[in-house]
Specification:
The chain is of the alpha+beta class. 15% of the residues lie in helices and 32% in strands. The chain has 6 helices and 23 strands. α2 crosses α6. This is Type II secretory pathway pseudopilin PulG.
């Protein structure tokens, strides 16, 4: 069982159109045409602000809503490659079902989203576990809100892994995912349900057996922070809407209680370095919030890797994520959670949350946030999978990913927006022509 990421957080210095009865066209706007013809705008962008504030988490577009069962006998099946929405009660567990083969590794992650205005304790959070049909534990993980005790989205993961180090959970069959609160009904957290976002991803077996132990040596020296002029890059409002960034210095503003999501493509053999910095503000520096900013790193399966807290007194403050090894398949053989989580290439997520308490001392205005992202080491070939991951490319870095990180748009967004523009104009033109013909015909019918 993997424990919660304790040390780093614990030491946080830390017009629509209308017509008359006679058929005369009064007004049709292009905006209304787009709404009527294309469902209201770009997917997932409707009325969606950057970042999450007050619980406004951006769930994945098209996520299927499912109910967690009180008993495993009634558990709904989760399929790899899909994203789901559900609810976590204030007390008790909820169960879901997996149907697995005897060769693939399956990772399940649950992102807990407390409602706006709720209180949470530092020890509360979410726990995810995977069990076999006999109730034996395959894996479990917990993630808590940490020292600040500020409500924000947090994610935990669990795995059914085919490994020579594990004697259980290797057979094909039915497995169960259990999600629960970490500190149910205690520690000052508000009662009531939280929303959940669930994901499941599948990793195929290797073509050839690889190393059975973790790399013994890697450069763990703190790197020199990345320098340069910061580039504005607004954070996203959820994992599915994380803003791509690459190596460089990235700047945004974050308000108390807000959470920003970024993703960094990290290839096999590359080592990720991150520094979080809060900029100075107009204060006298007499108040210090020890856990003002929480920066979490999650891997491509939304498994927690590491975190760091940044304290704040109005002067600029910065902290580094703990040194992490280069991405390698064999890292999974290390018992230490931070190293074991760096087991595959893909998009690694940076989740920055500014504690609500900051507003009590510095006001509810935004605080400057800078992320210094470094990547060292040469990219390497992957481990040689015998099949394809589900979803495809989740454990790889594509050219589209690199372009998105350089440009600041999610992979495929430019294409989607171009298609939207063309489709909107085309649909709008067709609708306007049709309405014009219909109006002319109505007028002719009205003439004696």
């Amino acid at each position: 069982m993997r424990g919660r990421r304790g040390t780093a957080r614990g030491r946080a210095r830390a017009g629509h159109g209308r017509t008359t009865a006679t058929g005369r066209l009064v007004v049709v706007t292009l905006a209304s045409v787009a709404v009527m013809g294309l469902g209201g705008g770009p997917p997932g962008r409707q009325a969606l602000a950057a970042g999450t504030a007050g619980g406004a988490y951006a769930f994945a577009e098209g996520a299927q809503t499912v109910d967690g069962a009180a008993s495993t006998a009634d558990a709904v099946r989760l399929e790899a490659g899909r994203t789901y929405r559900s609810t976590l009660p204030g007390n008790g567990k909820v169960h879901y079902r997996l149907e697995l083969d005897a060769t693939s590794n399956t990772y399940v992650s649950a992102t807990a989203v407390p409602p706006a205005g709720r209180t949470v304790s530092a020890t509360d959070g979410v726990k995810v576990s995977v069990q076999d049909g006999d109730g034996r534990s395959c894996d479990a993980d917990t993630t808590s809100f940490g020292a600040a005790g500020s409500p924000h989205p947090v994610a935990a993961w669990a795995v059914r892994e085919i490994s020579p180090r594990r004697s259980l959970c290797k057979e094909a069959g039915t497995y169960y995912v259990t999600v629960e609160r970490v500190d149910r009904g205690g520690g000052g957290s508000s009662p009531g349900p939280w929303e959940l976002e669930l994901t499941a991803v599948s990793e195929p077996a290797l073509e050839r057996t690889g190393a059975t132990s973790a790399p013994e040596e890697w450069d763990s020296a703190p790197p020199r922070p990345v320098t340069g002029t910061p580039e504005r890059r607004a954070g996203g409002a959820g994992f599915a809407r994380a803003t791509p960034v690459g190596e460089g210095v990235w700047r945004d503003d974050v308000r108390p209680g807000q959470t920003l999501f970024y993703k960094v493509p990290v290839d096999w053999g590359r080592q990720l370095h991150v520094t979080a910095e809060l900029g100075s503000s107009r204060t006298d520096g007499s108040v210090y919030v020890p856990a003002a900013l929480d920066l979490d790193l999650y891997n491509p399966a939304r498994g927690h890797v590491a975190d760091v807290g940044v304290g704040y007194d109005g002067d600029q403050k910065s902290e580094d994520l703990a040194p992490l090894p280069p991405v390698a398949y064999a890292n999974r053989h290390d018992a230490r959670g931070q190293i074991g989580a760096m087991r595959f290439a893909g998009s690694y997520y940076l989740v920055a949350h500014l504690a609500a308490e900051v507003a009590d001392h510095f006001g509810d205005g935004p605080v400057p946030l800078t992320l210094r992202v470094g990547l060292s080491g040469a990219a390497q070939d992957g481990p040689g999978y015998a099949g394809e991951a589900v979803p495809p490319d989740v454990f790889a870095v594509t050219e589209e990913d690199r372009e998105a990180a350089a440009e600041g748009a999610a992979a495929g967004d430019d294409t989607a927006m171009r298609a939207l523009a063309v489709g909107g104009i085309g649909s709008g033109s067709a609708l306007l022509v049709g309405l014009g013909v219909w109006t002319l015909a109505a007028r002719r019918r009205a003439v004696p």
